[in-house]
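--- STAGE predict ---
source: upstream dedup step, 1 unique chain passed
mode: sequence only
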Amino acid sequence: MDNIVQINHIASHFGAGGLAIDTGKTPPQSSANLSFKRLDPALGNGFDDGFDALEVWIGTNGRSGILGEFLGQNAGDWFNLINQDIARIGVANSDTHDRRHTQVSARTLVASATENPAELGAVAETLAANIVAGKAIGTNAPFLLLQADGVFEEQAQHAGLRLTESNTLPADAGSAVELTVTVSTPAWAAVDTVEFYINNQPELTSAPGSAARYGVCPDATISAGDEGWVAVDVVVNAAVQGGSRTDITATLTLDEITEDTWVVAIARGTDGVSEPLFPVLPESLSSSTNSTLADLTDGNLAEGGTAAFAFTNPLFIDVDGDGWTAPGVANESCSMSILLRQAAR
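--- STAGE serialize ---
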């Protein structure tokens, strides 16, 4: 197998400091002076789809790397590409170099049948293939999975992100598809919200005349206490204070689905609602309100600490089972995208 080609620092590649690629155009189009990038100006377009993965979450972005940069621009480029059938794998990296430290502890978890770390080197190509197959999630603590269940030609169908599961679900036009997110998260990494991005159309957020950047907002959200949310606390080690986890299930039904669809799920904690990952990740916690030990141990709600966060790679719903077709780029405003999605249901 060939090596994985991965674009790191997605904003630096697609943004004004890189090739200034507008992913909202079909095909994506660069506007940078290619000669300044030591590229052949005769190319005309500096965009090339010959890559496998995108670093959509970077661990040295501080707290803004969770909601600010991830949803503010990185996911916008990622989703625009998926909408054009350039479905590349989203990954998360710590971005630690030399003595630098990670602020949000971003990591990519890759599905593997090999559990012994000493044996992973021997299956490196298999791990690479699992990433290319989308069997990976980005996280700073929660373990997150997404599955879809439906009916095609009177037969029950299932898709998911586990090794043995297909990531494409065939479904009859007009039938219902149930999306299920499962989260297992330690007691120190509280999750209170699950977001669904469904054929999501990113919104252009950059100023006219500047390099095109896009933001995203969810098409559906389920929070703790809502219908479809079930949470169970599980004691992992009774001898250890806080030695427990929370298993969460969030379900969403897409009624009368009529078009091919992709779905990405995000699980997260919310500042002011769930305690941040302190002291595991202390970097982003406000110093002005935490000058004493009592301040540090009071739960730190709404004090800017790093929250729990995880995202999946997409599942694909193939209506009529004739091959999945990308929806194309529309780049609606967030509010319009949600209204159209609700109307379609």
